[in-house]
Amino acid sequence: MLSFLLRKLLVLIPTFIGITIAAFIFIHxxxxxxxxxxxxxxxxxxxxxxxxxxxxxxxxxxxxxxxDYLWQLLQGDLGKSFVTGRPVVDEFFELFPATIELxxxxxxxxxxxxxxxxxxAAVKRGSVFDHSLMTLSLTGFSMPLFWWALLLIVFFSGYLxxxxxxxxxxxxYFFDDVTGFMLIDSWLSGEKGAFKSAASHLILPTLxxxxxxxxxxxxxxxxxMLETLGEDFIKTARAKGLSPFRVTVVHGFRNAxxxxxxxxxxSVGVLLGGAILTETIFSxxxxxxxxxxxxxxxxxxxxxGGLILIATIVIMVNLTVDILYGIIxxxxxxxxx
Amino acid sequence: xxxxxxxxxxxxxxxxxxxxxxxxxQNRGALYGLIxxxxxAIVAIFAPxxxxxxxxxxxxxxxxxxxxxxxxxxWDYIFGTxxxxxxxxxxxxxxxxxxFYIGFIVIFFCLTIGIVLGLVxxxxxxxxxxxxxxxxxxxxxxxxxxxxxxxxxILGPSLxxxxxxxxxxxxxxxxxxxxxxxxxxxxKDYVSSSKTMGASKARLMFINVLPNCMAPLIVQATMSFSSxxxxxxxxxxLGMGAQPPTPEWGTMLADSRQYxxxxxxxxxxxxxxxxxxxxxxxxxxxxxxxxLDPKMKSNK
Lengths: 337, 300
Prior knowledge:
The complex is a heterodimer. By secondary structure, chain A is mainly alpha-helical.
């Protein structure tokens, strides 16, 4: 198991270096001089310009700039934002909990509804439930996320008036950031109504972000279940006289887990991508909105650092999924690939 | 002699197509999808004839007129007018052209570049294969929409740049698929016999192996067609895709965003058509999968 882990980790190193190079090149092929963009319309005196060029290292050759950047990155320094002047890493980790909170809620929503629904559809194959679930899930899968989010706002906030339109919590509540997760912090604060406010702000973004993964999970768990339910060992289990529940869940589902885990792992990238739209629409102060704002403000250190951090998270999640395969199915880690 | 061979090939192709159609027909969803897309294609082709007004002409006397099925609507403007008094129906009709434009251009880039890189990777193995596949891993590590957004920011916001950015994020899937298919074909007898007969590498790649890799690639291309429409609309919605006054559906949605609570139909119509288009293409993709590869027919 340890050598399996080590092998997987070693493969990540070139990918990680590639990610840093890609993000670095991204930013450096942008037309326009970053210093002049920072200076704005009034421009700069020549000597101040040279000073800034030197301070940011832009007067160095490109490969030297990259190596400097990589060296700082390995020490946990991704540079400072042009706009706020604060370290990119600090800003990222300040906003990251908001994104995790949203992504985890959306993922849970998708898993809790999507997987049992998919299993049920497989067991009741060809039934009305099966057909309507498959139609619904294909519709969910085809849904333009931003439109779905706006529809939710129109219906739940506009028409019914049940939920707030944007933000993480009502401005009425003040309490300390303990964990950065609004649900936990508001609950810890003990303030009356704070938790309810945080939860009501979270509902629509969760629904919006979770719908597409939900549709994917339902489809994937259905087809994975159909495949295993046709196998011989299921017939054996039935013939042994095991209860239908035991046959489906213990024998069937366990063997259908690999494709399902794969899809859940892959959906993390989809969730982070979807967070860009969801956070923008609901003014959710997470890294998705932060990235979009930075791209529009041409805050290059933030875009560059943010790209690297997000891509690193994605490859770490993929690694975790790979390791999970080895745990679910011991045959995989023996195979050597 | 060669005529006989040709004839045989033709009838084999004909058999394959008619077999495909028999399978495809049985999937009712796919059939509905095909009908919707066909109608939309006709609308797109004849847009200038079908649209009652110009898509950019502003009728200042009729701002935000509701569609016909809502009280206050008028037969002159069946889908109503937008905040600048432009006819929504004409904009929707012209906008359908952009959906096809986006879909076709993106899958054209994906198929050509993806197939070439995938075949090269499968045929060279070793160092070049490694370089290509690691590069694809790197692209895949960035969430597609984020990468597309960053690319468009670099290239400058426009529909064409949005399509390039979207194609870049999809290419790795095509490369992986082509490579995997080609590798499984390379071990087969017909490839080695072709090799012994002295076929060149290019002939092996494109004439012998590639046709046998096409089925999954066609399904992937269909699915990418619909996601390209979605992603281009998302970029348009964020202001990084087609620029106003282009009647692209995502951009139209973005324009109507500030009126979602006062005039919700403004954003309902473009969104609904994006959904229907994407849904239809996905249904067609499902049907194609059943038709091209009956083994994968697990959904029935």
